[in-house]
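During the reporting period the student researcher (J.K.) took over the structure-prediction task from the postdoctoral fellow and processed the backlog of single-chain submissions. One of the processed entries is reproduced below for the supervisory committee.
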Amino acid sequence: MRQKLCLLIIACLLPLSIDAADQPRELENAKITEAQLKIGKIVWLETAAEKFFSVYTQTINKGNLGTVILLHDIEGYPNKKPLIHDLRTRLPNHNWATIALQMPARETNAELKEYYGLFEDAKQRVNATIDFLQQNNVKNIVLVGYGLGAMMAVYSAVENTENLLAVVAVSLAAPTTNHPHAQITELIRKINIPLLDIYAEHDWASVTASVRKRKIAGRDNPHYRNVSIPSAKHDFQHNAPLLSKRIYSWLSRTFRKRENLLR
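J.K. obtained the following structure tokens:
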């Protein structure tokens, strides 16, 4: 009887799913972000299963070209410096509002492969954000992911091509794995909207080693572009402004091309 009671207690303490996000850690990230925040405001969004927070930053001018959804890297959060913070605050100066999402979190120091089971949750958060933006009459929505967030962005974009103007994958890895959610090259082949695959010259080995595979996967998409940032490392510590410039310049060209086609 005592053994059965102990097993019952242990079962109650275990998470309901091995793929459940670490909610306490996400709430801690919300507190950290709120304490740091000087530009933008926190917006809470909701999927069918959970609430999550985001940081929305308006453009300087009243009119804007659209809104960029930002997905952070592993161990990150919506105001993480240097890259996500730089994109979040710099793109609005160039007529792109931003909404940076808290992505499903694992425990500290979890490996990349431990996040693959959360890709579906990540997609639901992206879907909820797209719904929120469309309800607020946003016409042009762009999905930008960094590192792990780039993998989540590609996964989320496949079923959202009609809702997105473009996708930007920063430091996109294509790891060797049997997990169905992380078949990155197959996912790239399914994306037929503008896709900017941009990475650091000295990026993660899993990023630089798969450049050729990603190029081949994107060759049937006339709007796919693969770009390297010279001398940069994965953290873009000294190259975040240059990366931001490359992204907003490409987005503006993509926007103009679409507008010309619609005329």
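The committee noted the following: DSSP finds nine helices and eight strands in the chain.
J.K. will present the remaining backlog at the next meeting.
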